[in-house]
């Protein structure tokens, strides 16, 4: 009996488990280690914040999925790897041995080492904490809508832009018109324009949308410190001297990796992401595979986006099976350009692909909704 251990219930592992359910491998024991029971589907996260989806619609329940794949499910957090003994060390249980290991644990926002950020900011990941803080803020707003509040987002990539638009749209929906102006929205970004890795059309259009909706854009602003004021409000300081008093600060900066991976001796890039070859296989440890945000393809690094984690699911499954059966591995070649549909929070989306973009259109949101629901139905059919 060989042991295949999967750490993290990210997008690629959800797909791999679905494939194992369809085509079980004899003589293989599968174990899934996940620190959550239900993992968020990134494509639906902004729609969930905007109020278009329920929690269950936007999350993959890993228990039935593991069950279908006949995998053991451990709800625990992997904290280290012992690569001499081929074991995963977890926060709350004895070490878990593996013959083949696969890691799909996503990422967390970088630069949380800015003074005060780790204490006062709400990082976009882990998502359950983000959602908890958001629900708490939502309740506070509903209880005292007359109070003047400010929300800040740090990071002007697709995640930060969608999060800000979605939260604003949600609060506008649930607040009576006379209270809507009581919440100010601010977005801080260190470059001269938002959405730097998307088409200029998307960047221009979403800048206009944000400005028209009264969201204050602070471009070329590097946040250097967060602190608490005596009034219990937070203070955000920028390198330029700009200061903002606010009530919540969402931290949606570029992706970063946890330290325990590089500490284990796995080959990682200079940001701590696992270096993999075109088989999604660690370049230093051939019995270890990685996918999604936590992996960096050595000769073809791609942006950290859910779309790649999804695309890697099937080749990952195929190569895990082949490695376990001592067969030659297949190659995975990521697409160079990919379509991003960025929601406005109001039932429309802007499309961006390479240098091109269109929207905002309601039809684009309808397409995104259809794609995402179809994906979820394929992964975790309801009922
Ligand atoms: C607000 C926001 C909106 C976004 N919107 C989009 C979008 O519309 N489209 C898009 O393509 N991308 C989007 N992204 C990016 C997207 O979330 C990530 O690229 C994607 O989730 C990566 O998938 P993954 O499979 O690598 O990991 P994840 O989806 O992050 O899954 C990793 C899983 O591993 C678990 N885990 C983590 N550490 C451990 C551990 N030590 N032990 C056990 N389990 C662990 C986590 O709880 C999680 O369940 C968005 C990101 C944010 C923050």
UniProtKB/TrEMBL annotation:
| Coiled coil (residue ranges) | none
Reply yes or no: does the keyword Oxidoreductase apply: yes
Which part of the chain is the FAD/NAD(P)-binding domain? 2-313
Keyword Cell membrane attributed = no
Q: Which InterPro entries match?
A: FAD/NAD-bd_sf (IPR036188), FAD/NAD-binding_dom (IPR023753), NADH-Q_oxidoreductase (IPR051169), Pyridine_nucleo_diS_OxRdtase_N (IPR017584), Reg_chr_condens (IPR000408)
The superkingdom of the source organism is Bacteria
State its cofactor: FAD
UniProtKB keywords? FAD, Flavoprotein, Oxidoreductase
> Known Pfam families for this protein?
Pyr_redox_2
The UniProt similarity line reads: Belongs to the NADH dehydrogenase family.
PANTHER family under this entry? APOPTOSIS-INDUCING FACTOR 1, SLR1591 PROTEIN
Q: What protein does this entry describe?
A: FAD-dependent oxidoreductase
